[in-house]
Amino acid sequence: MASIYDRDYQEVIGLLKKARLEKGITQIELAKTLGKPQSFIAKFENGERRLDVVEFVRIARLLGVEPKSVLETIFDSNNSIH
Fold it and tell me: CB within 10 Å: which end of the chain, N or C, has fewer?
């Protein structure tokens, strides 16, 4: 199982955070939309908490990011699946 320190995982989180910031959405706003506390957003963005696949898909879609494209970006840049 990959850890929160895995390069690919960090890239996924980085892309989600970048999308949030580019859209001008605060951690508080995203958290409210998800029905979660702001600390939930802070913890996964700072690597203190790991997202599961369902959380990842929901957050990506809320940010207007296609989950499949995020994964393709990572695997295409590595030219292999880990």
Answer: N
Domain that holds residue 69: 7-77
Number of domains in the chain: 1
Position 58: which residue type? R
pTM of the model: 0.84
Given pLDDT bands bounded at 50, 70 and 90, which one contains residue 3?
low
The pLDDT of residue 73: 83
- Burial 43-72, CB ≥16 within 10 A → b, else e: bbbeeeebbeeeebbebbebbebebeebbe
Of 82, 60, 67, 64, whose CA–CA distance to 8 is shortest?
Answer: 82
